[in-house]
Amino acid sequence: MQNNELPDWLKEPNVNNHSQTCQNSRLISINLRIINFFIKHFQNEAIVTDNKQSAWLKLISILVTLILILCSTNIKFLWIVIIIILFKVCQLPSQQVSKLSSHFFKMFLCSVIFVMPNFVIGNVQTTFFFILRLMAIVLDVAYFLQINSWQQVIVGLRQLHCPNLIILILDISLKYIHTLAIFLRESLWSVQLRMVGKTLNNRNIIGKVFGQLYLNSKKYTNEVFNAMLLRGYKINPKQKNSIKINKSDYSLVIINLIIIVFFVNTSM
Question: Does the reported pTM lie above 0.85?
Fold first, then answer.
């Protein structure tokens, strides 16, 4: 009589392989969510204010403000700077204020996480002053990013006679980070599809994905370089972006002078 029962080795469930497969799939899903979040926010360009202030002056303004904030040791000066920045924020449309607020809280919370242990192992007063300085810096950077696009930053760097090679590297790098992020997402999707019913080594997966990412970045770089050669690109462009001061620039100059005066008074 034929025995229709399954062998004992088929009846035993392979719990280890199943748990390892679930763990690998969960890890890839987390990375896919992070990359999708990055690509989504990269594609959704922020609404930039159509102000008539010169790009080079806005770059100098944020550099001066950040340097004074880092050099100051007076808590009154930090509060004055925060109030001035909030006054500039209040002049933005409501939609921009909401976007700026969300960006500010995200950047500020991510930065404060690294400072919180100092409340236990360090001086509370010094930590509070450092957090206040961090708040002023993040608020100023968030406001600058809200009122300026990447094209305006490039124009400002050219007006300040920044080396064209540095501008070219920054411009190409920012544009192709998005392309490499899309390729990385597609690679993780293919890995996730191949993991159905299989257990894969995490180290081998990471090595293969980053190897493919490096090879594709090298391929894109060569294609961009060849396209630039065919189009007759020159590092030194003929057009010159001269520095000009508009009527709307005087308000920004006055604000910077006020910040400098308060810095000098509080430092004495």
Answer: no
